[in-house]
Amino acid sequence: MRRRLAGVGVFLAAVAAVAVVVVVSLHLHPFGARATTAPARTTGPTGPTGATSRPAAPSITVASLGLLAAPASRIAAAPFGTDGALLMGGYDSAGSPTNTLSSFAVSAVTSAGTLPGPEASGVAAMLNGSVYLFGGETSTIYALSGASFTVAGSLPVATADAAIATVGNTAYVIGGYTGASELNTIVAFTPGAAAMTVATLPVTLRYAAAASYGGEVYIIGGATAGVPTATVYRFDPATATVAPFATMPYARDREAAATLGGRIFVIGGENAAGARTRAIYTLGPSRGIVRLVGILPRALADAVAVPAAGGIIVAGGTDHSGAPVATIYALKVGSGS
Fold first, then answer.
1. Do residues 23 and 17 touch, judged by C-beta distance below 8 A?
2. pLDDT digits (tens, 9 = 90+) for 96-134
3. pLDDT 10s digits, 181-207
4. Structure pTM?
């Protein structure tokens, strides 16, 4: 009898261990998870705190909105029109930059003209009601005037693969790549004034994502010398200071990010091995709490995210094979957020 009871105990322990492994795998490896929500991960200003008491995670839905005219990655985008977005340039299926300028509204993509030249890996922002395009393979800052672009200024150097966020009427272009070296600068641009470097990052940073909340800028992931990071930095424009704020569950670059409903959403990305992810995380700006809250229909990196229509528009990017995609998704936050 003792041997039978011991055997049963060993069996139950094995079952419990397998269950724990499955649960942990679904949370920490969302590349193949089917769930649309997941348990929260709590972090403090510099990393995991181990806390178990936290607010309820938001309810996330992901829906297909439409398609770009052609697959593209590393698109520049800014809010435009009524709950829409203006989509600029990007790399095509052959890896060449394009001069495509498209307007997206509701579920339709329409041509809005062309860029002054082929451009990819630039960033864009809406400032004082006008759309501005920054860098890419050059240092030029363009302003959209009607259906054409005019030169509005210049970044200190050619800047591709940067992150961007806006606070008030100022855009901050963060990190990037000159074509020869990575950047550790934060460059501020306000319409009517010259672009200028206002702060430096602790490290050079390429392929990061950024979003603003409460007058501060949060810089997420990115890579230094080709090595992705999990660090989230917080930049305070009022004091021109940059400090580590939180840690994402995994080191990744090439994510997209946008602020919605008091949370920063971090979408997709790529790890050091080149694997794309389907994960959607939220970062709480007040306490640095990070949660896995949703799963994309496909693994995605190099996409662009724009707050619009009470949600977030996610356009283009590269799939698990590295090929550009034409998909446009809508991320919506339920009432439970």
1. no
2. 999 999 999 877 899 999 999 999 999 999 999 999 999
3. 999 999 999 999 999 999 999 999 999
4. 0.84
> How many CB atoms lie under 10 A from the CB of residue 298?
14
Structure tokens at 211: 């979003």
Q: Which of 50, 31, 30 is nearest to 41 (CA)?
A: 50
- H helices then E strands: how many in the chain? 1, 28
Q: How far apart are CA 102 and CA 210, in angstroms?
A: 23
CATH number of 33-333: 2.120.10.80
Domain ranges of the chain: 33-333
Paired with 231 in beta bridges are 247
CA atoms of 285 and 232, how far apart (whole Å): 11
- Distances, alpha carbon 49 to alpha carbons 218, 234, 321, in Å: 20, 18, 35
One-letter amino acid at 105 equals A
- b/e for 147-163, b at 16 or more Cβ within 10 A? eebeebbbbebbbbbbb
CA 289 from chain center: how many Å? Answer: 17
Query: What's phi and psi for 334, nearest 5 deg?
Result: -75, 175
Q: Give the Å distances, CA to CA, from 141 to 132, 156, 179, 190.
A: 7, 11, 17, 11
Give the whole-angstrom CA distance, residue 127 versus residue 166.
8
Residue pair 102/112 in contact (Cβ under 8 Å)? The answer is yes
Q: Provide φ and ψ at 27, rounded to 5°.
A: -80, -45
| Beta pairing, strands 196-200 & 185-189 | antiparallel
Amino acid at 158: A
Amino acid present at 79? P
Neighbours of 262 (CB within 10 A): 14
Ramachandran bin of 302, using left for φ above 0, alpha for ψ from -120 to 50, beta for the remaining angles: left
Residue keyed to tokens 């990196």: 301
The residue written with tokens 């008491």 in the block is 53
